[in-house]
Amino acid sequence: MIDSGVFRASPPQTRLQEWRGRILQTLLYVLLVLGTVMYVANVLVFIRNQNWLIIAAVSLAYIMVAVVTFLRGLPYELRAGTVLAAAFALGPLALNLYGLGGDGRVWLLFFILFSGLLFNRRVAVAAALLSTVTYAVTAWLFTSGVWPPPTDLVTRDTNASSWVNTGITLVFVITVLAASLDYLIQGFSRSIRELEDTLTAERKLREHLSLQQTELADRSSDLERRLLQIRTAAEISRAIGTILDPQELLQRVADLILERFELYYVGVFLVDDRGRYANLTAGTGEAGRRMLADEHRLSVGGSSMVGWATANRQPRIALDVGADAIRFRNPHLPHTRSELALPIALGNQVLGALSIQSDQPAAFDQDDVTVLQGIADSLAVALENARLFQQIETSLNEIRQLNRDYVEGSWTRIARGGPELFATFENPAEAGDDSPSYSLNIPLTLREQQIIGNITLETENSNWSSEELEFVEAVGNQAALALESARLLEETQRRAEREQALNELTSRFARTLDFESLMQTVVRELGQLPKVSEVSIHVVPPTDEDTPGPQPAELGAAAE
Fold this sequence. Notes:
By secondary structure, the protein is an alpha+beta fold. The chain has four domains: 4-201, no CATH class; 235-392, GAF domain (Beta-Lactamase); 432-493; 512-543 and 551-559, no CATH class. Helix content is 62%, strand content 12%. The protein is built from 14 helices and ten strands. A six-stranded antiparallel β-sheet has the order 3-2-1-6-5-4, sandwiched between helices. A two-stranded antiparallel ribbon has the order 7-8. The two termini are 50 Å apart.
């Protein structure tokens, strides 16, 4: 099993090398155990035949494998090369000792296979060529009588046709083995890269979510500090803390400020997307309702308290509205004597302003500005939280709807595209019973409360206990999940088959270089697809208007 922690931390090429290192170490253990048995058995035979040179060669190979098995600190290339060198040396040695009846061809195939697994495609191709040449030279030596001399182990096989036939088979197996191994390694590498991309995307998503949570936590912490410092603001903030709808939130804040501070009028303005106007969004009393109906708005930076506060991001106080030159005289509020405009800002962004008016002169002091500005700042955070909540809620609803549409569409296609999915079972013990029966329908419901089918139970008793009903519903839910899992598995298999067919077609197209042959190959392969009765390809030359000069004849191909 792959270590997930190492897997995430290492790049794809490093993980591929780790995978090869594990294969090498496992191979060394196997070779050492089995090689010990083979070594002892063969050396005894060689000693009886006094083959001292062969004994030395086999002993050297065994010692080399044993050394690289236990000295794991040696470079990977040295350890893997030692194994391959030993395998290659045993190939021609076994051919010379035992001829075609021995295991020399097995060692050559072993040499090719693990050259690709432990290194790469180029090494595997080189090993395949070297093994083919080695076999050909050994065959020539045997058939020509040059080497080896007959021994007690083997009688020289000088039949050239046997060596040629066996060599053709060996070359075929080598070619298929090298190609298959190449596809295997490439597919494994692609899987590693795709998994790495998936893990990277997941890690970025987690970092993004963590950043958003950190930002939200920072804002909440700032809000809590303000709530502890300002008692009145804390009381109002607690009242509005559970409201997530922006319109309801603004109206609730305006009503609370009006009530707790005993004011004449409170209005909330929000700046539009262009930053040109501050539009009245919530207002108290009859005056507020009339101005909302008239779509009351003030210019940002204009001659009004709200316009100045939104443009300068600072509170402005008019203790005597008659003496302040920067003020909009609103006919809906004739009794205003004092006015306070507070910017609703979040960072460097001005969201709007609070317009707080009193029918008493000099109704506001610096403490009121501090408390009310804290409420305005809290309102800005609440607006941002409400916006984020609505954005997340909208995204979740879209995801849920897409999932419901996908599941519903999939099951609809299954229902329409084949025979009716139906199964029934009749209890033999209850067969022939003429007593009245009652039906109990249990819907097959998926996680998103989507019903994909129905289970009907015919019973003699209509009174079911709550425990029995819960059990049957649980069975129905599990059956729905099992059916959905089967559908997903079938869909995955179909996709895999389509991808495999596409890869095979692409491979066949790539082997054809002639244009006419390529078109014939395309229409022939496409014509073999299910539900396809005829395929045609027409290559239309450019018109006279597009290309001057003689036009080539139209090229085409068709298949039925």
